[in-house]
Amino acid sequence: AAELFLDNGTGKTTCALAAKASGAEFWIHLEDDWEPVPELVAALPEWLGVAIEIASNPAIGQVRLREEAHLGRLVTLPDGLHGVGGPASNVNWCDGRPIAWSVVKDAPFMVSNAHWSFNPCVMRTEIIGTGTREKPGEPIAGVFPAETERHAMARFYAANLLVAQLRPGVFRHTGEGRH
Known about the structure:
The protein has helices spanning 12-21, 38-43, 47-55, 149-158; strands at 4-7, 26-29, 34-36, 60-64, 102-103, 109-112, 121-124, 162-166, 171-173. The chain is an alpha+beta fold.
């Protein structure tokens, strides 16, 4: 069985680095303003094992666990970079391109060029990074160190990894206005 480190979102960078230091192979990030949706869990009761299997693919950097129905919902972004009420979930926050989700035939997930997110997810601890900055010209070693979520997104983007979205997803955001 895979080793899993569960983090509750307290001190995001600290939790990520603790996940890596724990020796666990995978990290699940889940904050306190997300809750499982019983009917979605019932639709894919083995969701965690499926997410870990997907995250095992070296081309996949993150497996998102949010409910699929949320994708494309109009939201107000706190940074104003994408306008008020823009479809944030359909735009890569690093390059502004539309996110093109590709459904994988007969599989409970889809993949895309989406940006990395602190939404509920599973990822391999090996891509978390070392917490130490690379020297100029060295390849990006992982998502961290990062001063902000946007900086973590940029580091993930530079690593050229894909994002998978579990279908139908598992968690619903309950903290509107909280990010």
